[in-house]
Amino acid sequence: MLLENSQPEPYRIKMVEPIRLIDREQRQARLAAAGYNVFRLEADDVYIDLMTDSGTTAMSANQWAGIMTGDESYAGSRSFTKLTQAVRDMLGFEYVLPTHQGRPAEHFLFRTLVRPGQVVPFNAPFDSTEAHVSIAGGTAISCVAEIGYQPSVEHPFKGDVDVQKLRNVIEGEGRDNVPLIMVSLTNNAGGGQPVSMANLRAVKALADEFAIPVYFDAARCAENAYFIQQRESGYANRSVAEILKEQFSYAEGCTFSCKKDALVNIGGLLATRSRALYEQVVPLLVLHEGFVTYGGMAGRDLEALAIGLREMVDDRYLQHRVGQVERLGDTLLAGGVPILRPTGGHAVYVDAAAFLPHVPRSEFPAEALASELYLEGGVRAVGLGSLAFLKEEPSTGAVSAPRLELLRLAIPRRVYTDSHLAAVAVALIRVYQRRDAIRGMRIVSAPPMLKHFTAVLAPIEVRDEAVAECREVMV
Fold first, then answer.
1. Is 351 a catalytic residue?
2. Which of 63, 231, 309, 320 would be 86's cystine partner, CB 3.0–4.6 Å?
């Protein structure tokens, strides 16, 4: 069990925040009022919140101390100078453009480099990243290795790019139609799986052959470096900081949602070696985020981020953080719950298709499972399956489901103890034991893009009258 293999946290807890578990009848009412979409739940109605690891970090004493010394100057902030130096020291990029989170950085990158009709190869794009490519007029293409689509098979680097797939895309589309290659570290869309250093070298070599720049989605780059240290030959005796620096040596730049591995509650950046790209993005940054030396952040946020970039590579912290996720995964496996193996660095991904094989993909098994987990234990997790990644061909109306149907249990950094995660495991195992009685969901209303964030859903068995009431409540 999870608690039997627990390791003490490599930190002391100096502040606490009360949480409460409301009773099942209340949870049922809250879920119905939220249109059976856990994104719409009030945080106070959630007991243990594993929806995301983004912006949910508990910051360190040094970061909180840094906040008090943040420089709020509009231009030339010394906190920005500290951030720039931290990026150069840790990642190796000369030019730094701060944003309030990762999405503006993606917007600026794709808006600048992608023209209508072009394609952007990835290992696998996350839904919001893919949307930014689409808005720029491009198409994101997944080139992840086939092993990444086999949830039950153990493999150390399921986030690797299939280099032959990548070559086929470049040669099939033509070099001029591929403005950049993007690699997510780790691969969030495919279970938080890492990318090997050997694969990054191979991608870089192919990109150089065609003179195409490589950019990283760096949200969980420190966890990726830790997996390389633990799993790849030749890296066991190197520090995570050293491995991190080598990773980025194979990229022209990165977008970075710093709300993940960089240990802050808000913040992001676009970093690059290209002065030409930097100069193109600066006017967009000023227009949409703020001046170039603060972007979308306050000086105190810049200060906390500069510290977080240095703290994120602490080997003891990463050993505990990744180990905590692994222990939760092992406990669920022992209870019979099918998960994507091996566990990722930031989350356990439940194989919702294997958990609910009787629920067709058109009835959104991941969302059905998310609802049931909330009802059972007040735990909020997020579905990453048909609702998030469904593809519709505009010309024909043909719909295709993604190859993976996952429920993500994302673990906030330095927030929950193993006893919290033991409660999560108990709740999910109970749901698994009554899985045959679970039914699917249908869409009541949803926007055309990024449906899973705001869709109103209803259980298949709910009568039309109840659905109408649900819609009225949501309005």
1. no
2. 309
